[in-house]
Amino acid sequence: MLDLAILGLLQETPMHGYELRKELATKLGTIRAAISYGTLYPTLKRLQATGWITESESDPSMIPPMTSKRGRVVYKITAEGKERFADLIAQAGPETYDDAGFGVHFAFFSRTDQATRLRILEGRRRRIEERREGLRDVLSRAGERLDAYTLELQRHGLDACEREVRWLEELITNERSGRAPATPGSFDIPADPARDASPEVPRPHQDRP
Amino acid sequence: MLDLAILGLLQETPMHGYELRKELATKLGTIRAAISYGTLYPTLKRLQATGWITESESDPSMIPPMTSKRGRVVYKITAEGKERFADLIAQAGPETYDDAGFGVHFAFFSRTDQATRLRILEGRRRRIEERREGLRDVLSRAGERLDAYTLELQRHGLDACEREVRWLEELITNERSGRAPATPGSFDIPADPARDASPEVPRPHQDRP
DNA sequence: GCCCCGATGTATCGGCCCGATACATCGCTA
DNA sequence: TAGCGATGTATCGGGCCGATACATCGGGGC
C-alpha cells in the first residue's frame, strides 16, 4: 500500500525522505496520521533494491544544504517503477477496499482511468454497506447485551457508515455521468496531467524559488 | 491496547479464544474489523505468562464438544489481571486518543469512573480538533497544489472531523451533567456496575444458563 | 449409511508498520 | 555563544495482520 503512495508521489517529482513524508501526510492526512520513518526508510530501500526507484545523490535544489558528509538522498522513480505504479493502481484486491487501501487509491484517482475508479468506488461502497449491516444487526438484536456506552459507539459508527455510503453514491453518480468530483464550492479539475502513465511526458515540475 | 480489551471482556465472563474474537468484533466493530488470530493467540500467551489470566481446561459449558485431544482452552482473569485492567483503564497516554485506543477505552466506559471518562473525551476532542485544523489549512491554502480528487478526500475527512467533535461535545456535556450517554431513542443506563475499580466487589456475574 | 461442507476451534509464520531512539546540520534568537 | 526548533537519515524491538495448516462437530444431500 505504501509502495503505491511513494511511487505515486515520486511520479510527480523526485524527493528525499523527509519531504516525501510531509507530502504523504498532507495527501493522505485523512487516512493515516503520518508515515513513520521506521516504515519509510526500509520501504525506500526495498523499492530501490527491487529497481522501482533510484537514488540520485546531491540534487540541484541543494542551494545551501548539508555542507559535508551524508547529504540528503533524493529518490526518483524508474521506468520499471512507473510500470509497477500502473499495475498497482489498476488492480483491485480485497485490501483495496479497507480504509487505508481505499484512501491511497482514491488519492491517485486523477491518474486512474474511469473504469477502475468506478470499480473501486463500488467495491468500497459494498464493503461499507456490509459493515453497516453488521452494525444494524448488533444494534437491533443486542438491546440488553451491551451497555449504553458501547451502544453509543455503535450508533456513531453506524452514522459514519451511512454518511460514507451517501458520499460514495454521489461520487459514483458523478463518475458515471463523466463529471469531475465537483462538490458545491469546488473548483474545476485542472485537466488531467499525464493522461496515462505514459513515459517521457516532459512535465516541467517547478522547484520553488 | 489489545490487553485492555481482552482483560475487559474476561472480566465479564471466562471465554475461549474463538468466542473472545467474536465478542471483540461486536464490541469494537466500529474500531477494528476483527482481531486476527495471529494477534490473539500470542497475546493470550503473553497475558498468561505475565499472570494476568489463567487457562482453565474443560469448562462446564462443554456440553458436547471435542471428545478427544486438545479441547478448547478457556481463559479467565486473575486478581492481578483485574488490577492491571484498572490501571490501564485509568491512565491515559497519547495512544489513548488515536482511533483504536479511544475506541477501546470508550467501549469500557461503563467500568470507568466519571473523571477519567471526562479526561479521555476531552483528550480525544483535542486530538480531533488538531486533525481538523490541519485539514482546514490544507484545504484553504492548497487550492491549486492538489487535484480535485485529493481535495474531495480532504473535504470528506474534514466533515467527519467536525461531526466527531460535535458528537464528543454532546457526550462531554452529558457527562458533566451526570447523565448517561442518552441520545434520543436510547434506553436507560443499567445502574453503574462496580462503581470504581474497587477490589473485591462481589459482583455476581451471571453465566448464561 | 456415507460424504462433503461450513462453523467451530487452536496455532504458527512472514511481513508490514509503528514508536522510540540516536545522531548530525542549519538558521534563528536570546 | 549557546540553545532550540526544523530539517534530515537511519535502526531496533515489538504489535498486529493475512495466509496457512490442522482438527472436530453438526447437518444436508444422495
Labels describing this entry:
three-stranded antiparallel beta sheet, 209 residues, Arc Repressor Mutant, subunit A, 6% strand, 3 strands, mainly alpha, DNA-binding, homodimer, PadR family transcriptional regulator (chains A, B)
Task: Characterise this structure.
Chains A, B: Pfam families: PadR (PF03551). Chains A, B: This is PadR family transcriptional regulator. The structure is a homodimer. Chain A has about 210 residues and is mainly alpha-helical. Among the domains of chain A are: about 1-55 and about 70-100, Winged helix-like DNA-binding domain superfamily/Winged helix DNA-binding domain (Arc Repressor Mutant, subunit A, Orthogonal Bundle), CATH 1.10.10; about 115-175. Chain A is built from seven helices and three strands. Chain A has helices at about 1-10, 15-25, 35-50, 80-90, 100-105, 115-140, 150-175; strands at about 15, 55, 75. In chain A, strands 1-3-2 form a three-stranded antiparallel beta sheet. In chain A, helix 1 packs across helix 4 and helix 6 (about 115-140) runs antiparallel to helix 7 (about 150-175). The longest helix of chain A has 29 residues, at about 150-175. The first copy, chain A, is globular. At the A-B interface, helix 5, helix 6 and helix 7 of A face helix 5, helix 6 and helix 7 of B. Chain B binds a DNA duplex (30 and 30 nucleotides) through helix 2 and helix 3.
**CATH class placement of one domain in chain A:** Mainly Alpha
Oligomer class: homodimer
**Sequence stretches where pLDDT stays below 50 over 5 or more residues of chain A:** 59-68, 184-209
The count of β-strands of chain A is: 3
Q: What Rg of chain A is obtained from the alpha carbons, in whole angstroms?
A: 21 Å
Estimated helix fraction of chain A: 40-55%
Order of helices and strands of chain A: HEHHEEHHHH
Would you identify the CATH architecture of one domain in chain A?
Orthogonal Bundle
Assign the CATH topology of one domain in chain A: Arc Repressor Mutant, subunit A
Our count of helices of chain A gives 7
Tell me the strand percentage band of chain A.
5-15%
Biggest interface and residues each: A-B, 47 and 48 residues
Straight-line distance between termini of chain A: 33 Å
Query: What is the CATH superfamily label of one domain in chain A?
Result: Winged helix-like DNA-binding domain superfamily/Winged helix DNA-binding domain
